[in-house]
Specification:
Shape of chain A: elongated
Number of helices of chain A: 2
Largest interface: A-B, 29 and 41 residues
Oligomer: heterodimer
Largest sheet of chain B: 6 strands, mixed
Distance between the termini of chain B: 61 Å
Radius of gyration of chain B: 21 Å
Number of strands of chain B: 18
Structural class of chain B: alpha+beta
Radius of gyration of chain A: 14 Å
Strand content of chain B: 25-35%
Number of strands of chain A: 2
Helix content of chain B: 25-40%
Strand content of chain A: 5-15%
Chain lengths: ~50, ~350
């Protein structure tokens, strides 16, 4: 299994989610996603829908 | 030349929602980081939404923490989606994953968000196809649904008012009119509000707000509006409540603001604090939720000197806005627990086999 050309070990969803919550992501691509997610969360705080 | 519709005048709220993948589970599966199992169909929660639905993005992480697979079809990213839905088996092939939806939740899957060229045949075609298929997915009988579309699709604001009144809740006097300048239900002071959605999306990804606003008392134009609006009696209130119903439980916030539009145009000036509602009121709200068959919804109530007044219910409700201001996660926690629990109940009852 590969991500960004680097071998990664498949994990369970629980383990990956726990890594995200703890802010201890080792995979670079996932760390980038996590940073984007935090930014989006701040941006959408002001969005009011229903 | 027709004047600008009343509800579009002075509405400066504009929000851009880029079609960006923010779903955690989609991300980790695409990157090949998750143990894929033996290739058997994976029971899942299927969500039809849009990329910027942060409530669903957070649900994706919360379900991952509980080991529950969630899959996603977003209106703003669906036009190049590899998807096959089987009709003779409750299975979906989404990209390279074979999934068995057990619980389906459609919210904010608005066709206006589809990234198509407006006014073209190809655009019209894609919107029509996705409209038909998303409606089928949201009502399919061999899957369970959150807020089933069969019972909520016709829950417009006017039906809500008559149903709420029939359950013993006070409602403001209301008219629907193309002549708001000549209509004053319940007295001179009125509020005008949309009879449709709170956000309009004339171009994919660009959402314009339609806020309730006071109807100017001087307004007496006889020119009909291009579309009917709701004109509602203004009631002096001590405060407002937003009450979330999640799986038979009420979670309430007090919302203090100076005028109705402040929720959108000056959200930082709105004060949101956790509160409780009297048992008699919550009993009526829960009874209404059961009647409408909604499991997750948000009621807006006015608190007047002598009563709680029903304003509206929102089935596609957003709770993170309120939680952020109240500095808690009460609704998120309740929704995540409820969805995970419901999923496990359905799985245990054989719906996931």
């Amino acid at each position: 299994m590969r991500a960004l050309g680097k071998e990664v070990t498949a994990m369970s969803l629980e383990e990956l989610a726990a890594q995200l919550r703890r802010g201890e992501i080792e995979d670079r691509a996932l760390a980038e996603y996590a940073a984007e997610y935090v930014t989006a969360g701040k941006c959408f705080r002001s969005k009011k829908d229903d | 030349m027709k004047p600008t519709p009343l509800l579009l005048q002075g509405q400066n709220y504009l929000f851009r929602s880029p079609p960006k993948t923010l779903d955690f589970q989609e991300q980790v599966h695409r990157m090949g980081m998750v143990d894929e199992g033996d290739g058997s169909p994976v029971p899942c929660v299927l969500v039809l939404a849009r990329s910027a639905d942060m409530e669903m993005n957070e649900l994706s992480i919360a379900l991952a923490e509980r080991g529950v697979r969630m899959a996603r079809i977003d209106a703003d990213r669906c036009t190049d989606l590899p998807l096959t839905i089987y009709t003779d088996a409750p299975l979906v092939e989404l990209d390279r994953w074979l999934l068995r939806p057990v619980l389906v939740w459609r919210r904010h899957f608005e066709l206006s968000a589809l990234p198509v060229e407006p006014g073209t045949l190809a655009g019209s075609y894609a919107v029509d196809q996705w409209g038909a298929v998303s409606n089928w997915l949201a009502t399919r009988g061999d899957w369970a649904h959150v807020n089933p579309a069969r019972s909520t699709a016709h829950l417009d604001r006017l039906t809500q008012l008559s149903d709420a009144a029939s359950f013993g809740l006070t409602v403001p006097r209301t008219a629907v009119t193309t002549r708001p300048g000549r209509t004053r239900p319940g007295g001179a002071h009125c509020i005008v509000k949309t009879s449709g959605r709170h956000l309009l999306e004339p171009r994919p990804g660009v959402q314009h707000g339609l806020f309730p606003r006071p109807l100017e008392t001087s307004r007496s134009s006889d020119a009909p509006e291009s579309a009917p609006v709701i004109v509602q009696q203004y009631l002096a209130s001590e405060t407002e409540l937003r009450v979330f119903v999640v799986g038979g439980r009420c979670i309430a916030y007090q919302v203090d603001k100076l005028d109705p539009a402040q929720l959108w145009v000056d959200p930082d000036a709105v004060r949101v604090t956790p509160t409780t509602v009297p048992d008699t009121v919550s009993a009526k709200l829960l009874a209404l939720a059961r009647y409408w068959r909604v499991e997750v919804a948000a009621f807006d109530l006015l608190v007047t000197a002598k009563d709680h007044v029903f304003l509206e219910v929102n089935v596609n409700c957003d709770w993170r806005w309120f939680e952020h201001r109240a500095e808690d996660t009460l609704v998120s926690d309740a929704v995540h627990d409820w969805v995970a629990q419901r999923f496990k109940e359905l799985l245990g009852a054989g719906k996931g086999r």
